[in-house]
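Lab notebook, page 48
Experiment: co-folding of the full assembly
Goal: obtain a model of how the components sit together before planning crosslinking
Operator: M.T.
Materials (sequences as entered):
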Amino acid sequence: MIQQRPEGEGADAMQDMIVLVEPLIPALRRYARSLLREPAAADDLVQDCLERAITRWGQRRSDCDVRSWLFAILHNLAINQMRQAARRGVHVAIEDSDETAFSRAPTQEDGIRHRDIHDALEALPEEQRSVILLVSVEGLSYADTAKVLGVPIGTVMSRLSRGRERLQRSLDTGVVVKTPNLRRVK
Amino acid sequence: MSSVRPISEDDLHAYIDGALDGARRAEVEAYLAENPEVAKRVQGLAEQRTMLKRAFDPIAQEPVPPELSISRMIEARRRPASFSSWRSMAAAAALLAVGAGGGWYGRAAVDGAPVGIAALAQEASDSFATFASDRGRPVEIKAEDSASLIRWVSNRLKRPVLAPDLASSGYRFMGGRVVPTPHGPAGMFMYDDDRGSRIVMLTRPMAAEKDRPVARQPGGDIARFAWAEGGMGYSLVGDVAPDVLSPLAQQISKQINET
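Observation: model returned without errors.
Model output:
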């Protein structure tokens, strides 16, 4: 396999990178958009993530799992961006955000469902939301989720449990309990 | 049954996520069969998981946009001078210009807007920013119809204008359009190389600085060259290294003089 190479610029190292990274790009886009909602901003973030991955490919530990490594880079970029946005107060309140920002034109009936779940997710604390998305949508193992987030598995489990219960209450009652965390209503 | 480890909340989530081994899964299933209230809650959470997957999965089915092509990104880095390195060179050049007495900025500072050649370079950069990034319609009239493009630009500029030919340097003529500037209409011509990197030339009559040699223009995010000959100004800009653009600018200047 690939040994450490300065800057990861070796031609065959890069070929290996393409083979390993390319299949993961759709999932990276999905995770970015599930966090940021706005498709263009999400793709910018994935682009940023890939740029960083290219530069750091050579420094990557050879035993590290490429998927968790990429998700960790993407997650950190997303968190930084959301925090900055929250500080600047530019984050658009959910009530104002455009429904077309979602992944597809929903059909009449499931559109309502999707909107519900997006809103309910958005209302969760960021830590719980990330865990739920990584486990439920991205299908990461608890160990990989812990690696992506840089927290112990026990923390992943408690965030997962609390997050899922809270999400479930929002969905059952239709009442979204908002967390002001990372959001600032205009 | 008494030997079974108590079922934990973690077990229930691992059951939902399919993360249990066969033996433990059987124990959880047995537990759920005896505890219908918990079973109902677990079923709800499992449905939530499915619902989330269904809500977000279509994103991963979308075709990946070209900006996210990893091979293209690696290719872009292999170019001799990377964008970031020459951008810092441009910043250094801008600082030098200030240090040298602020010649450019001195002129530009009168009413805050650049004039003459500096204005032309800025207009070319603006056109580049607007049109070169346009995937669908970067040019209004394509190269195939260059006769009508030349006619259009010449009519609006009220003088004969020719589109330079850069094919010998690997830049293909794409076409162009008339664009507005604070100094009247200008002709914009666009070229690309076989990697799809685009450059833009802008030309218009000059009210000030009617004759100036080809020179690198400071400022901006992209490389820009500008000059003026016989009352017509020319500016060549692009998201490429200045040492790529410089010979192209010379080549255009030579072609203009030969016609």
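Interpretation: The mean pLDDT of chain B is 85.
Next step: discuss with group before ordering constructs.
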